[in-house]
Amino acid sequence: MPELPEVEGLAAALRERLVGRAVAETALASFSLLKTVGVPPQALHGRPVDDVRRYGKYLSLVVDGTHVVVHLMRAGWVAWHDEAPRTRLRPGGRSPVALRMTFDDGSGLDLTEAGTRKGMAAWIVDDPAQVEGLTGLGPDALGLVPPLEMPPLVGVDRATGEVRVAVSTTAEERAGFWAGVLAGRRTRLKGLLREQAVVSGIGNGWSDEICHTARLSPFALGDSLDAGQTGRLAEAVHEVLLGATERAVGRAPEELKDGKREGMRVHGRAGQECPVCGDVVREVVYADSSMQYCPGCQTGGQVLADRSTSRFVK
Fold first, then answer.
1. Distance, first Cα to last Cα, the chain
2. Which Gene3D superfamilies does the record match to this protein (predicted)?
3. Residue % of the chain over a pLDDT of 90
4. What is the C-alpha to C-alpha distance for residues 303 and 64, in angstroms, rounded to an integer?
5. If 0-12 CB within 10 Å is exposed, 13-18 middle and 19+ buried, where does residue 66 land?
6. What's the burial of 239, exposed, middle or buried (CB within 10 Å: 0-12/13-18/19+)?
7. How far apart are CA 245 and CA 259, in angstroms?
8. Which alpha helices (DSSP H) does the chain contain, by range?
9. Which of 97, 146, 155, 214 has CB 3.0 to 4.6 Å from 110, enough for a Cys bridge?
10. Residue 65 domain-assigned (yes or no)
11. d(CA 200, CA 137)
């Protein structure tokens, strides 16, 4: 699933390509994708793209003041074309393309979703606050402010012309924020990091990396962390997400998924050697997901219960 760094990188890539271009045509191939009816896709035709933004894990194309908000969910993505395909989309067909937008220079993008379980969603609204999922998000995991108030992380240095990722929070602010988040929460750390109503932007992959970097068990309860552990968690969230965003920005959309995997030390690496301590990376499997962790770095050597076997692995 695309998370904060990948969606921020995607927003930056699309912003560079689209701002100033006008929408020439839209083609909707999956009627279940669109969750609003007030503004039809055809209403975007001939109107310029003003901006591309990220809100949590949501992507928003701002077209002449109208927002096309997209939640990519687990298997959704944006495929960019310097020259848009000319093949006609058939509603209800087998193509993974749910929506195609073509622009006045002949370029285009496809909203695609792999697999048979379809969860990707889009809204066309005058105000992003009209999307219920956005108003229910917790503070942004990097900016620590409500997502709708979050400025873009990516900017251009006026002195050097370099593209940079900038976050203005201090270590003290980050520690205080996470102390407030953890207080009174008898929730496992892994689940707490993924709870979008608590803090937005972190998903399954980067939560594994954050716990590993902070040297904390994913099963630790939120309110059990002491001040030192809370400080490590706060800095791990900042370090992991900022580093991943810096690696994502500047990549083409088609490179972002592989780029995400390259930056991971434990997630998706069960059975491999931990690059920090040399222990074997372990896995806990759930019905529809899994998590990876290093016993040597995170649990004092203890192997956590795997629900796929309902026992402790010795």
1. 31
2. 1.10.8.50, MutM-like, N-terminal
3. 81
4. 54
5. middle
6. middle
7. 10
8. 4-18, 132-135, 171-182, 189-194, 204-214, 227-248, 256-262, 295-298
9. 97
10. yes
11. 6
| pLDDT tens for each residue of 86-128 | 988 888 777 899 999 999 999 999 999 988 778 999 999 999 9
> What's CA 111's distance to the chain center, in Å?
16
- Beta strand spans in 65-219 (E): 66-71, 76-81, 97-103, 108-113, 121-125, 154-156, 163-165
| 114, 140, 166 - which closes a domain | 140
Res 299: pLDDT: 97
Residue 301, domain extent: 268-314
Amino acid at 168: S
Enumerate long-range contacts of 280-288, CB under 8 Å, 24 or more apart: 282/313, 284/218
Residue 153 covered by a domain: no
Categorize the per-residue pLDDT at 258 as very low, low, confident or very high, splitting at 50, 70 and 90.
confident
- Tell which of 125, 140, 155 closes a domain: 140
Residue 145, pLDDT score: 96
CB 84 within 8 A of CB 102: yes
Q: How confident is the model at residue 221 (pLDDT cuts 50, 70, 90)?
A: very high
Q: Which amino acid is at 293?
A: Y
pTM metric for this prediction? 0.93
Domain count across the chain: 2
Residue 219 lies in a domain: no
Structural domain includes residue 282: yes
Assigned token pair, 150: 């979050």
- Could you tell me the CATH number of the domain that includes residue 88? 3.20.190.10
pLDDT surpassing 60 at residue 292: yes
CA pair distance 255, 261, nearest whole angstrom: 11
Closest-CA residue to 215 (of 191, 244, 196, 189): 189
